[in-house]
Design brief:
It is built from 3 helices and no strands. It is mostly helical and 65 residues long. Helix 1 packs across helix 3. It is globular.
Length: 65
C-alpha cells in the first residue's frame, strides 16, 4: 500500500470512528472547539483534541481488537 493510500485509509477509519461514536453517544465537538484545537496544531503547539474527538478515536481503537 502506498503512503498516501495508507494515510487515506487511516483518515477514513478515523472519520468512520467519529461518526459511529456520534451516532452511539450523541457527543460531538462544536465548530469552535475544533477550530481552536486545529489552530493550536497549526501553530505547532501540543494539545489534546476536543474531548469528543479523542473519545471517538479511543473508542475506535478499543473496538478494533
Amino acid at each position: 500500500m502506498w503512503k498516501c493510500e495508507a494515510k487515506r485509509e487511516q483518515f477514513r477509519k478515523d472519520a468512520l470512528a467519529v461518526w459511529t461514536h456520534y451516532q452511539t453517544t450523541g457527543l460531538h465537538a462544536t465548530a469552535q472547539e475544533a477550530d481552536a484545537w486545529l489552530a493550536k496544531v497549526e501553530a505547532g503547539e501540543e494539545g489534546s483534541p476536543p474531548l469528543s474527538i479523542g473519545q471517538a478515536i479511543a473508542w475506535r481503537e478499543h473496538n478494533e481488537t
